Amino acid sequence: MRSDLHDDIPETPTCLYCHAPTDTEICAACAQAIRETSATVLEERTAPMRTATPLPEAAFSITLKGRLGGQEALLTARGQTWEAFRANVEQIRGLLDAPAAPPTSQPRPRAAAPTQPPPEGWCAVHHVPMKLQTKDGRQWYSHKMADGWCKGK
Fold first, then answer.
1. Of 6, 30, 130, 138, which has the highest C-beta tally within 10 A?
2. Does 68 reside within a domain?
3. Its pTM surpasses 0.85
């Protein structure tokens, strides 16, 4: 029987990470390194997030509304000084699509319908029917209101 068939199996077990000879799968040094790394990672993940120092409100700001590549967009430029603001405005100038040209043929305004007088016996002020009144040979239309009579004028 050939003895070289099992040459790839080490006679002494080795660590899975550093391949140092050991009686266990992981040597003591690698096990300690794994514990320390795990503790550090756990500490980093559970530590409260550090917040950045808030930025001061910009002294100058402008927001432009328009279309960018056919999509509605808002572009904002800010600056703490007038010079910085102007430089930032120059950087965004020309990014928005040119506005669409107005239609060349303006629709003609419709002529207003001629106003017709209200039919006889109708109050144009309150839009209610009026009653024909007669007195001393005179006739007129009127309707009663809370504070008196209306003749539709």
1. 130
2. yes
3. no
